[in-house]
Amino acid sequence: MEIDPHTLQQILQRIYQQMRCPQCGSRVPVDFSSVQVVADDAMLLQLKCDGCGSYIVLHASVAGSGKDIAEVEEVATANISSKLNIATDEAKMVTEALKESDGSFEKLFEKYNVGKDNNEPTSE
Asked: Is 29 among the domain residues?
């Protein structure tokens, strides 16, 4: 799905207004770098709470993309996450990486230094 930068910024602002950390309840920063995947009617974001340091993986459904109503009704009850445009090899790679990280996204993100500032010391 093609989203212009202005629309994307509006979506991110809306998420910021509504998003609270499930661990500590504080606001979670949301910006362009949080967006990891954009699919037909959904986005996958990786967020980090500044309050407690928790990582949050957020699946956001994007409504009003201008699709034909008949097409929308057809997938209204479908699991939108199954509509992500991801290759089978990529899905297997993510599954294996999660297995190696004992199913923990936090360990997986740490392994690949995702979400770390360049100034922060690594645990390696």
From this structure: yes
**Within a domain: residue 122?**
no
Residue 115 DSSP symbol: T
What is the pTM (predicted TM-score) of this model?
A: 0.47
Q: Is residue 124 part of a domain?
A: no
How far is it, in rounded angstroms, from Cα 41 to Cα 11? 12
Question: How far, in Å, CA of 42 to CA of 80, rounded?
Answer: 7
The residue whose two tokens read 């998003």 is: 19
**Residue 31 belongs to a domain:** yes
pLDDT at 19 over 70: yes
Q: 106 and 54 in one domain?
A: no
Q: How far apart are CA 48 and CA 116, in angstroms?
A: 10
CA distance 99 to 108: 9
Give the model confidence (pLDDT) of 78-124 as tens digits. 555 555 566 777 778 888 888 888 888 888 888 877 766 655 555 54
Task: Locate all alpha helices (DSSP H) within 19-87, ordered by sequence.
Answer: 69-74
Tokens of 93: 């790679």
